Amino acid sequence: MIEDSYQPLERRPLASRQWPVWQHVVAWLVRRQITPNTISVWGMFCALLAGGALALTSRFPEWGTLLWLLAAVGIQLRLLANLLDGMVAIAAGSASPVGELYNEVPDRISDAAVLIGAGYAVGGNITLGYLATCGALLTAYIRAMGKAAGAPQEYCGSMAKPQRMAVLTIAAVVCLFVPMEILTKLQGSFPGGVMAVALWIVFLGCLFTFIRRLRKTAHFLRKTQP
After folding, report:
1. Residue 11 lies in a domain
2. Taking a C-beta distance cutoff of 8 angstroms, is the pair 79, 165 a contact?
């Protein structure tokens, strides 16, 4: 079967894959026959939960503490799912071309959910939320297009997926300890509240990352031309 023989050619370089704790978790998941595609989908649901929690902070400020906490935890669970799905696929010998779709498509939905949710959050900026989402999609687009053109996938930053989620997690944790009235007062200022600043960082970082990946991919393709 294709699933038994297929091996993914490239994976995001993550040193945390070698941590013993994740090796034990992967072994536990494999024993219980939890598929990598299931993990990928659950990671997407965690991101949707995080994005929804962020957006709801502006509708229900009295629940701010719970919502900021849900957002931070949901973002980190999304990253954990992204780490484990590939590891489980390799350990179980279940990697497949369809698995590549499950690895990529939920990621794009997850990025959009969290970044747009941050735009609607207290201290956020709706326009920046959509701009940051476009920036994140561009970084994934150039990586995919580079692979389609025959170049290695470029995972370089400085604002790849782990960095984007780290910025938003930090912002959510900061908001957890800042009084809601202060977050609200900063809403209309420049560069904005805590979430708006985080979105500025993500957006500008994604543009830099897109340009960097584009240049590296183009350089590789030019070098390998006959």
Report:
1. no
2. yes
